[in-house]
Amino acid sequence: MKSHRARAGALCLALMMMSEHSIAQSQLSQAEIYRAQARLFESNFLTRIPDGRIGQRTLDALRAWQRQAKRPQTAELTKKEFDQLMRFDPGKHAWEAISGSTDGTWIAVWGHRSGVEAAKKALAGCQKKSSRPDDCSYVSNSVDRSGPGWSAAVFCEQQGLFRKKGQMFLHNGLSRKSAMDQAFAAASTAKFRQSQCTLVKALNGNGQQ
């Protein structure tokens, strides 16, 4: 009997928590959720292009931002957290993005004011041009094109169990070598061997290779 009451109590508590969670989420419109995702995306907390829907990736990204901002890690996108997030300035000026596929196709876009729009444009370009559009992956990064510095993009691919896996890496540096080294280092961290990676493009602040 006690066991039955304990299970019933646990179920009620779980339902209450789910209800509170959904109420917290419903405080925001879909447009506000999209804006919050865009801010998380352009601050490098969210890795998926915003879609205006709250999923686990969005909540994990929110928790990571809360951790950095030294706020309670509730992982709930309430109106209060939305307002705080909109005040968070990632300090970015211009955006670039690059998308590539396992068939060797790649598309790079530069100088966008929005990281989300840059990523969308690069991904759409790759999917339109590639013979394997489902294999297109993307990465976006920010760079102040009015100042010094270099940006390097590296594309890596490896054979998985059933199909090839492709991934882009884009990094900035004060020199061409520094940007390239950081991009290849990121690929190594992601378990790609150097022989599986190719430099796609390296540009300086004036757009010169």
Automatic annotation (TrEMBL):
Signal keyword on record: yes
SUPFAM superfamilies: PGBD-like (SSF47090)
Signal peptide feature range: 1-24
Key words of the record: Signal
Record InterPro entries: PGBD-like_sf
Protein's UniProt name: Peptidoglycan-binding domain 1 protein
Naturally occurring in which organism (per UniProt): Mesorhizobium opportunistum (strain LMG 24607 / HAMBI 3007 / WSM2075)
